[in-house]
Amino acid sequence: MPELPEVEALKDFLTEHLVGHEIVRVLPVAISVLKTYDPPLSAVEGHEVVAVRRYGKFLDLVTDGGPHLVTHLARAGWLHWKDLLPSGMPRPGKGPLALRVALETGAGFDLTEAGTQKRLAVYVVGDPLEVPGVARLGPDPLAGDFDEARLAGLLKDERRQLKGALRDQGLIAGVGNAYSDEILHAAKMSPFKLAASLTPEESARLYEALRATLTDAVERSRGVAAGRLKAEKKSGLRVHGRTGEPCPVCGDTIREVSFSDSSLQYCPTCQTGGKPLADRRMSRLLK
User: Fold this and answer.
1) Distance CA 9, CA 265 (A)
2) What is the rounded distance in angstroms from the CA atom of residue 100 to the CA atom of residue 102?
3) Per-residue pLDDT tens for 169-210?
4) For 243-257, what is each residue's pLDDT tens digit?
5) Beta partners for residue 53, in sequence order
């Protein structure tokens, strides 16, 4: 799933390639992608893109005198830029293509979604806050006013585990499964530690890990073409998706805890005092 650093990089890429150009055609290939109907998708056609903004994991294409085209790539969605779009109409129901946006230059981009769980979402709205997911977002962790005290205040009454709290978009915007693993590894904290139990020292350590991990990922992604962002993300991850590999800090074996639709990775030595966490799914399978 694209998270804050990748969406920030896409925002920069699209700012360079879209701003100042007119959207001449928006072609919905998978109707399921459209989450709003008034105004219609065609309302953005004939309008110039004047800005591209990011809200958490949402991308917002701002048009001159027209509505906003807001996109959430969800778990398996992606954006593919093309200097010259294919001619002709795309065929519905064939492959992962969900939406095509064409500019007056002949360039544009495709939104695609792999797999069968169709969660890619596109909204046409007069104000981004009309999108429920945008309206409920917590503060952006890279914003200038997001300081140690802000994070401590968000977590002090949270009776959830740190992993779940960091992934809650209503609490902190933009952090998903991968970067929550990376942040907790950098902070040397168990993903199962209760958020409300943090000491002031631990809260400060988590804040530094949060800011540093996301800032470093944004810098690595800056200037990378849209088509290479996925590979760039994977190459920079130290524990997430690296089950069975040695921890780059201490050399211990990276472990995994599996859930019904996701998993987390961590280093026992760095994060849990050398004790492996219970993998509830594997425990059930072994009974």
Assistant:
1) 25
2) 7
3) 999 999 999 999 999 999 999 999 999 999 999 999 999 999
4) 999 999 999 999 999
5) 60
